[in-house]
Amino acid sequence: MDGKQKLFLVILGMVLVVVAVMYGLNVLNPGEISPEDVTVSERTTQEEVPEVKNEKEYVNVFFIGQNENREEVYKAVKREYDPEIDGTKLKFAIESLVAGPKPSERDKGVYTEIPAGTEVIAVRELPDKAIIDLSMDFETGGGTDSLYKRLYQVIKTANRNTSLPVYLYISGQRADVIGGEGIMITQPLNDRSLDG
Fold it and tell me: Which of 10, 11, 39, 90 could covalently link to 162 via disulfide, CB atoms 3.0 to 4.6 Å apart?
């Protein structure tokens, strides 16, 4: 190699180093970037990027459908839940239950025994218990069989969406006896609340 070629290679090397520094490449210590190498605007952007929630949350709402033997069963329907919009899981689940199945869920064969005029007066979660307060319409119409089914819908939905003991109230009064037939309810609500 003659002197001109050596000089050319040295100049070329220096130009490559200058270009690498201009474009933020750390050629001398690859893989190592100090905080000074990141501009203030890049730091701000990195710090201000909101954390993205990947996991969706769901509640289970119990409607009535049929199993493969065409027997009536309680079917859990998953509803997507957003705590920032919907409040507590229990509140959202009970409101969804009272609103009834969506058209797409009805198309899959589920229905509800909860009367159409029923309203959620309140769903309160206290440190030691939860209270579901429904309007008087919950008790009306449909007969004894319908009343049992709607009570089980509430019991199953409530117990799936909170670990607290749950109590049912009708228009502000604890419901120990419900409906014109006088169905007795053992509280807090559980799968055996209607046995006795």
Answer: 90
Q: What token pair was written down for 116?
A: 């159409």
What is the pairing mode between strands 57-66 and 173-174? Answer: unpaired
Dihedral of alpha carbons 179, 182, 183, 185, sign: positive
Token couple for 188: 């807090």
For the chain, give every domain's residue range.
3-48, 57-184
Q: Which residues contact 116 (CB under 8 A, 6 or more apart)?
A: 100, 137
pLDDT of amino acid 37: 45
Q: What's the mean pLDDT when you consider all of the chain?
A: 84
DSSP the chain: --HHHHHHHHHHHHHHHHHHHHTT--SSSTT---GGGS-HHHHHHHHHSPPPP---EEEEEEEEEE-TTS-EEEEEEEEEE-HHHH-SHHHHHHHHHHH---HHHHHTT-B--S-TT--EEEEEE-SS-EEEEE-GGGGSSSHHHHHHHHHHHHHHHHHHH-SS-EEEEETTEE-SEETTTTEE--SS--TTTT--
Q: What does pTM read for this prediction?
A: 0.71
Give me the pLDDT at residue 51, please. Answer: 60
User: Mind listing the pLDDT tens digit for each residue in 34-82?
Assistant: 444 444 444 444 455 556 555 789 999 999 999 999 999 999 999 999 9
Q: What is the CA radius of gyration of the chain?
A: 32
